[in-house]
């Protein structure tokens, strides 16, 4: 067994910026020409980007969409600190040093054909990537539900859903049009009073849906989540409450992102006891109960 399975699977390439869209709330969608990364990326993978020549440290960015045939990858990010602010000023035609794809991905299980995808804020991209993968995965008759939460305007134009979702609270009809176009039901949550959105956290919305399921349907559910740590902790607790599995993608500050510096370690429960794992290459995806064990 290879003790370093990530060796030989991460590529360094000069990626051309094909487009750079800007949305309210300092949110940006960056599309890059990165053929080697696009050929190997899986849902949950991320890239480590050089944001500007004046800033030596790279920044990790989750992948939202990938096209191996076109050799392109797409990231949604929020400009918060110096690196992402500099990145937001980069223009089409310029090139960025791109290291990727990095990380242990989400794993879809055909015996759990009702994946519940929870994306909070900049945790939305991996859920879009999973949904895209489900469209092409013929191992099961997938019936996903995609729930997305944001406390700033969503980086897409919302619209009322035409797909009925039993168990949804009355009036919760806002959806992500892309999911609707793919035939997948989605619903939105926010505490900002946006029209058609659930007034609260997506984990509370998920609980309402899970409560509506019968025993057989509940046995087909697995939770996949990415977002702020409090949300991931709540998602893992929700999975344990309903006795269903969960996978969570963690977000941590990173220096090297390839497992060398061990600056992104988190404590994870293993059969042999607690262990420190690197989010970059041992993750970012972990079993929810291993990272957030029940109290």
Describe what you observe in this structure.
- With 295 residues, the protein is α/β, with parallel strands linked by helices.
- It folds into two domains: 11-102, Elongation Factor Tu (Ef-tu), domain 3 (Beta Barrel); 114-291, Rossmann fold (3-Layer(aba) Sandwich).
- It is 21% helix and 32% strand.
- The strands form four sheets. Strands 4-3-7-1-2-6-5 form a seven-stranded antiparallel β-sheet.
- Helix 3 (124-136) links the parallel strand 8 (114-120) and strand 9 (145-149).
- The chain starts with 10 loop residues before the first strand and ends with a helix.
State the end-to-end distance.
34 Å
Strands, total number: 18
Mean pLDDT: 94
Beta content comes to 25-35%
- Please work out how many helical segments DSSP would assign: 8
- The CATH class of the largest domain: Alpha Beta
What CATH calls the topology of the largest domain is Rossmann fold
Query: What ranges have pLDDT less than 50 throughout 5 or more consecutive residues?
Result: none
- Give the helix proportion (percent range): 10-25%
Report the radius of gyration as a whole number of Å. 18 Å
Q: Give the structural class.
A: alpha/beta
What name goes with the CATH superfamily of the largest domain? Nucleotide-binding domain of ferredoxin-NADP reductase (FNR) module
Sketch the topology as an H/E string, one letter per element: EEHEEEEHEEHEEEHEEHHEHEEEEH
Tally the structural domains: 2
From the 3D coordinates, which CATH architecture of the largest domain would you assign? 3-Layer(aba) Sandwich
Overall 3D geometry? globular
Largest sheet, in brief, is: 7 strands, antiparallel
């Amino acid at each position: 067994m290879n003790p370093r399975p990530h060796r030989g699977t991460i590529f360094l390439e000069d990626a051309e910026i094909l487009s750079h869209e800007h949305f309210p709330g300092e949110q940006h969608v960056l599309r890059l020409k990165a053929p080697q990364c696009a050929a190997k990326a899986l849902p949950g993978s991320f890239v480590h980007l050089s944001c500007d020549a004046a800033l030596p440290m790279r920044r990790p960015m989750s992948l939202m969409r990938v096209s191996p045939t076109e050799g392109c990858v797409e990231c949604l990010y929020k400009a918060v600190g110096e690196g992402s602010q500099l990145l937001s000023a980069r223009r089409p035609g310029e090139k960025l040093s791109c290291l990727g794809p990095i990380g242990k991905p989400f794993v879809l299980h055909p015996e759990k054909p009702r994946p519940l995808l929870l994306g909070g804020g900049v945790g939305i991209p991996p859920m879009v990537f999973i949904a895209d993968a489900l469209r092409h995965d013929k191992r099961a008759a997938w019936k996903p539900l995609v729930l997305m939460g944001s406390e700033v305007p969503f980086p897409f134009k919302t619209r009322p859903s035409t797909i009925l979702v039993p168990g949804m609270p009355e009036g919760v009809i806002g959806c992500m049009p892309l999911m609707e176009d793919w035939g997948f039901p989605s619903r939105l949550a926010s505490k900002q009073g946006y029209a058609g959105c659930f007034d609260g956290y997506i984990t509370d919305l998920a609980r309402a849906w899970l409560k509506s399921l019968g025993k057989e349907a509940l046995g087909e559910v697995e939770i996949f989540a990415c977002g702020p740590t409090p949300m991931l902790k709540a998602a893992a607790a929700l999975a344990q409450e309903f006795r269903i599995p969960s996978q969570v993608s963690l977000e941590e500050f990173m220096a090297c992102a390839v497992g060398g510096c061990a600056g992104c370690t988190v404590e994870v429960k293993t059969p042999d006891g607690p262990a420190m794992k690197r989010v970059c290459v041992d993750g970012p995806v972990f079993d929810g109960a291993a990272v957030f064990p029940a109290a």
